[in-house]
């Protein structure tokens, strides 16, 4: 298997995320099931490449980003959400929000690179119609 490229994955993820209904679907996985959006996007990417992950590989992908998610992304999201609730009390809120969103996107891209680096160590299974997201949505974290 040819190694995956982080930048190509980022472009795929941005395009997929912007499709009608996809943002709501992915945020639903995150908010209702506690799933990681970047991992969901990677699984859709692998589907598009006709590659399937095994349950143990999926578990390894979850583990490799857990600390980054908990220590970097989730606190930033929580800060952004909190500031939104008190935005009228914050001078220059629009600028602060924009800068936080920019930082969050940079961290999202970094998390995607972590996933790609890990998946490049796997021997993935060629599959005509993989459904990696179904495997993930059924998995318990």
From TrEMBL:
InterPro entries: CHP02444 (IPR012659)
Domain of life: Bacteria
Pfam families, sorted: DUF2390
Protein name as it appears in the record: TIGR02444 family protein
């Amino acid at each position: 298997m040819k190694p995956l490229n982080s930048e190509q994955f980022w472009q795929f993820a941005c395009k997929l995320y912007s499709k009608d209904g996809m943002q709501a679907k992915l945020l639903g996985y995150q908010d209702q099931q506690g799933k990681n959006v970047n991992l969901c996007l990677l699984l859709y990417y692998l589907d598009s490449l006709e590659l399937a992950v095994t349950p143990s590989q999926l578990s390894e992908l979850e583990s490799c980003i857990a600390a980054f998610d908990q220590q970097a992304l989730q606190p930033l999201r929580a800060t952004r959400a909190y500031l939104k609730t008190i935005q009228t009390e914050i001078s220059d809120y629009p600028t602060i929000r924009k800068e936080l969103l920019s930082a969050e996107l940079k961290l999202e891209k970094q998390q995607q690179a972590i996933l790609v680096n890990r998946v490049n160590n796997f021997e993935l299974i060629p599959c005509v119609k993989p459904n990696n997201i179904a495997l993930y949505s059924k998995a318990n974290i």
